[in-house]
Each structure stands twice: as C-alpha cells, then as structure tokens.
Amino acid sequence: MPRPQLQNAHTREQVLRVAGVSERQLRIWERAGLTPVREEYTLADVKAMQTLARLQQAGLGPRRIREVFDEIGRKIEGRDPLTEVTVLLENKSVHVVFEGQRMIAESGQLLFNFDQQEISRLLAFPAGRKSDKEQARLQRRVAEAVQWFERGLEIEQTGVSVEEAAAAYEKAVELDPQCVGALVNLGTISFHGRQWKKAEEFYKKALEIQPDYSLGHFNLANLYDERGDVLDALHHYALALKASPQYADAHYNLALLCQRTGQLLRAVRHWRAYVKLDPTSTWAEIARRELDKLRRASVVKGRGTTTAG
C-alpha cells in the first residue's frame, strides 16, 4: 500500500535548504531527540529547524536546548514548543518567548509576563523614542515584512521559482531593513546562482545588523572558500566559532580548510572538536580518518628527522 503523504509535504533536501540547516546538523538534532527523523516535512518543521538553528548559533548545545524545551513543553502540554516560541538575543543572553512569557534559555529562569502585542511593541521600538502613531506605523511595516519573509520561505519550499522567492525577500527588506533572515536568504540564493558579489553584499549587510550572527559568518566563509579567498574564509569561520563554539559544521569546514592550507595542528584541533560534537555520523568517520592520516604523517615525519652528532 502506498505510504500516505503529509499535507504540503516537501523533501528533506528542500527543507534543509529553506531552513538554512546542513544535513550534518540535522542529524545531530535527530540523534539528540530534538527533532524526529522524517522524509517529508511541512512549514511547521521549517520553523522548528530555524528555532533550533537560532539557539545553536547562540551557543546552546543539544543538551541545554533539550532542557529548555522540556521546561517549555511542561507549560504548553500537547503542543510542540519548537513551533510556538520566538528566540531572541538580548545583550548576549538568549531568551525564548512563549504564550506571553519570557524565559532566559541559559538558566531556565522565567521573567515577567507580557501580552503578545506588548512583546512586539517593546522588541520593535526602544521605549520613549518614538510617538505612539509612529510606533504603530513602523510596527505595521515590520509585521508586513514578516509576512513577505514567510511568503519567500513558502515559495522556496515549492522549488518552483527562485526569482519569486528572492522578490519576496527583497520586499521584506524594503519594509524592514533589519530583516536579517531575508538578507541571509537572499545571500544564499545569490550564492547558489554563483553571483559571488551579490551574495557577499547580502551576508555583509546581515552581519552589520547582527555582528555576532554565526550563520552569517559561516555562510560568508563558505563563499570565500568557494571563491578561493583563503584568509577571509579562515577569518569568518573563526568568527562563526567565536559566536557559537559548538557550531559543528564550522569546525568541520575549518578543519578541511586548515588541512588543505598546511595548518595541520589547527586542523587536528577542529577535527577533534567536530568528532566530540557529532561522534556517530558518517562525517565523524571522515573526521576520524583525517585525524588518523594526520597522526600517521606526523609519525613518519618524526622518524625521518635526524639529529647532528
């Protein structure tokens, strides 16, 4: 009997692309029980992956993410917290907002209650700096930008028209120039179209708005690596890891680049970090093989060294 399909289902590859998540990272989350193993996904799954990515980029490992969402899950029993929370970064502290409550992700401490309208107002506009009328107008623009961003995600999920998705993201940025997600997705669309300069501009704009955005640094490093700009690639992989030390993919790509450029001790350090973060995947086996290769090369080199008598 044919297997029933999910409504509005999309392939694993499509969802990884839209959510901006690598296959390696998704498998880490699957093994940690943060997301189920599936072959077909919906837009809710994309939101869940984006929530996980935001927390991972902020430096929370799988165990801490699990603890945070177990706590939230107890308060919204029967629903998936990954699809019902908003992740915020405030003064290098990670907050999650759900049902009018805000939690400090690192400690699990619940902060005072807000209603959702007040949350949006406080997040969007510094208190006392704009008139109520101006705040309302700008808030409408931000809300419309979010709608255009989500429309871009939906268009990308269909795989029908990259141009229409890009137009939706551009509209989101026009309405809200601080829409980092739309800027990064525009950069990624340009990257896949091998429009290096445009991709670089979009990624850099996103990083101007959020300088410690590890995904932005990671994507920019991938661009420089692809383009052969080794020093810039090394720099931005390092910045991605500075912002998010447990960013497994950044360790993996940086290890490859260091090994390719002869920085063998540095490569060993990042291979080891990757294996520690993702010990059971196919890529971890590759990392172990590369580590073994480097160790054997070091032994051979040591044996070939002679000391003058």
Characterise this structure:
The chain has 309 residues and is mainly alpha-helical. The protein has a domain at 1-121: Orthogonal Bundle (Multidrug-efflux Transporter Regulator, Chain: A, Domain 2), CATH 1.10.1660. The protein is 65% helix and 6% strand. It is built from 14 helices and five strands. The strands form two sheets. The protein has a three-stranded antiparallel beta sheet, with helices on one face. Helix 7 (162-175) packs antiparallel against helix 8 and helix 12 runs antiparallel to helix 13. The longest helix has 27 residues, at 132-158. The protein starts with 9 loop residues before the first strand and ends in a 6-residue tail after the last helix.
Give descriptors for this structure:
309 residues; mainly alpha; Multidrug-efflux Transporter Regulator, Chain: A, Domain 2; three-stranded antiparallel β-sheet; 14 helices; 65% helix; globular; disordered N terminus
Gyration radius, in Å: 22 Å
Task: Enumerate how many helices there are, as a single number.
Answer: 14
Write down the overall mean pLDDT: 75
Tell me the fraction of residues in β-strands, as a range: 5-15%
The CATH level-2 architecture of the domain at 1-121 is identified as Orthogonal Bundle
**Helical amount among residues, as a percent range?**
55-70%
Q: Would you report the number of β strands?
A: 5
Order of helices and strands: EHHEHHEEEHHHHHHHHHH
What does the largest sheet look like? 3 strands, antiparallel
**Model regions low in confidence, pLDDT < 50 over at least 5 residues:** 1-7, 110-128
The chain-level structural class is mainly alpha
Question: What is the terminal-to-terminal distance?
Answer: 79 Å
